[in-house]
């Protein structure tokens, strides 16, 4: 068994454990995630999505092999053991090429899967749910499963040829688009047990070929909608009673758990309850980069108080100008007048500004900000105003006032909620608070 399989097996035996997945490529977020995993002594699953990283570079400019080396280099610098690092690929399929005919899109999807597995990505989410240019909409489940099985066959071969352990698989997709809904006004439907059973059965049949039988035994999870999501300004909180029948369904199935996407911005109590209810793989992405943005904007506000205009990084303005100049990552997601668009670009929970931290002018502004605050360290009064939690940690001697350390600590505060939810000894009962559990365990 791989580490992922062992952890899922422990959950199925009744242990209150899960696996949290950090879906991000930003260096400071990944460093924060490693520090959290070290603090809580957990494995660390880092996932790249099919639009972030692909055989052509994706929006990060990295192929799967380059992304792996990037993460391993950070792990060495952070002193994080590589054997506790798990790489995953999310929404792997024809997603990036769905505007092309299916035959062409699947050619790219096959190479995408091969590149990910050959680079050592172990947890593979097979997602062929999107319709291509000449496909019916919605795509019938049987075609989704058939294409997923085809990609699994390529993954199996790629692992064998590279001399790597065979991958584990996640099947299915959530109804909302990855990264949050455009709006939650129409409500949110929890996946029904009947729908989950149908997805599982059509995939089982697609994997009946003898060469795919071992791969089917390594299907560890299915993506469902447990009733959690977020849009630009609203979070739909987990309601355990609404997902009770779905939670009961998975207990009747051997080996698998549910994977919950869009768990960003859930309370820590909700994260604990999700793991308890067998949504044992929790994905977090935009909430981590939202915390990154919060910390950087707080440092920019401190900089504005400390330094004359000519010396400032103007990070907030530079980022927004970059987004206005290159609107392809937010134009179809944000709507409203100019004032509303400005607020959404900067503060929306969907955090479309995460696509812009790698732009040269934004990177330069961040570097100026960091250099400025290293040259003129923030006084405790301004830290107390803009980063009060971090100021208290500095006073306690547990944190330096280096700007990058402050950013990582702020991100780690969010990621720590996931680590505790996946590795605390017992989960909360409905309506029980995390604080009550902490008191009872003392």
Plain-language structure description:
- The chain has 442 residues and is an alpha/beta fold.
- The protein has two domains: 3-284, Aldolase class I (TIM Barrel, Alpha-Beta Barrel), CATH 3.20.20; 290-411, Orthogonal Bundle (GI Alpha 1, domain 2-like).
- Helix content is 49%, strand content 10%.
- It is built from 17 helices and ten strands.
- It has helices at 3-12, 27-40, 64-78, 102-118, 141-162, 193-206, 213-216, 244-251, 268-276, 286-306, 315-325, 338-347, 360-375, 380-386, 388-395, 403-423, 434-441; strands spanning 19-23, 44-49, 85-92, 123-126, 168-171, 219-224, 229-230, 235-236, 257-260, 281-284.
- The chain has an eight-stranded parallel β-barrel, surrounded by nine helices. The chain has a two-stranded antiparallel sheet with strand order 7-8.
- α9 (268-276) links the parallel β9 (257-260) and β10.
- α4 (102-118) runs parallel beside α5 and α10 packs antiparallel against α16.
- The longest helix has 22 residues, at 141-162.
- The protein is globular, with a radius of gyration of 22 Å.
- Residues 175-181 and 438-442 have low confidence and may be disordered.
